[in-house]
Known about the structure:
Elements: H1 31-36, E1 38-44, E2 47-53, H2 67-81, E3 90-91, E4 94-103, E5 111-119, E6 126-135, E7 140-150, E8 160-161
Antiparallel strand pairs: 1-2, 2-5, 3-8, 4-7, 5-6, 6-7
Amino acid sequence: MTDATPPDATESDSVFPGTSPPGPADDVRSAFQKLVNYRVVEVREGYARVELDLDERHINRNGVLHGGALTTLIDVAGGRCGTFCPVPGHHRRGVTVSLTTGFHRGVRHGRLIAEARQMDTGTRRIFTATIEVRNEAGLLVGTGHGTYKYMRGSEKPEGVPIKPAGYGLSP
C-alpha cells in the first residue's frame, strides 16, 4: 500500500495486488466496487481488463446474470481503458456520456472477463471504447460501446495530481 492509501484500506482492497498501480487513487477499491466485487485486473494505454466472479448478488430473479451487473462491467472497463495514467502521484478521470450494451448469452456462474479498447475520436475531451465480455470458456456474453468525457485536466496523458482522500466529497 502507499502513503496516500486511506488507513482503513487493506491489501485485499488493492486493485492490483502484488503490483505497482499507476497511483494511489487507483489503489483502493471504491464502495461500489466492493459491493459488486469486480476486479480491475489490467490497465494500460488504450486497454483495460475487468473481471467478476459471479455469485448470488449478480443473479436476477430468472436465475441468470442481471443486466445491471453486466452493464457495470462494460462501463468500468470502457472508462478505465481511456484513463490510464503512467505518472506516479497523478491520475486521470472521466465520466460516462453514453453507453450502449448488448446482451448475448445468459450465464449463471463462473468468471466474466471484460476487455475494453479505446477508439480514436479525434478530440481531446471525449474518448470512446468498445468492450466485449466473455465467460471463462471464451463465449461472448455481452458487448458495449461507450462514450466518455475527460474531467478537467484528465485529457492530458500526464493527468492531474491526486488530491487527499475524501477531497470534494460530501459527508
